[in-house]
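Example record

One chain of 156 residues, shown exactly as stored in the release files.
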Amino acid sequence: MKKNGILLVLTLILVFAVVQVASAAGGMGLGKRQGNLKVVNPVEQLELSDEQVSRWIEIHDDAYEQTRELRIKLMDLQHELRQLMLQGEEDQIEAKKSEIEELRTEIMEVMQESREECRSLLTEEQLEKCENFGLRGKLQGKMRFGPNGSAAGETE
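Predicted structure tokens for this chain:
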């Protein structure tokens, strides 16, 4: 019984030590990635006018609303694809992949239109600033779609 108590205490000390080391090292997963995130605030960097900011927000809200249902449908299709793969339904898998790709393309087209519309709001001086700190590619549609391609920033 005494041996079990000592073993429990040693295990707890070990767990506590690992947690402390991981915390001191910046954590794992998303927490660690956040430390390398380069956040670009277009309002500050481009010195957008109030009118530009207002229009920019409208454009992003419109794109969000246009893609909201599509993104939900995409998640559902991806779930269905995983189920088909687990069931080994080879004949249906390719059809589901095509359906997913079509939906992704549709979402990307809406996002591209919104980027182009945002770009059209900028003056020549603001467009030059985009090139200096890396927003140019994001506004020209080179931004990846997904968790690592967010408009808020990029990983270094």
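Notes: The longest helix spans residues 50-87.
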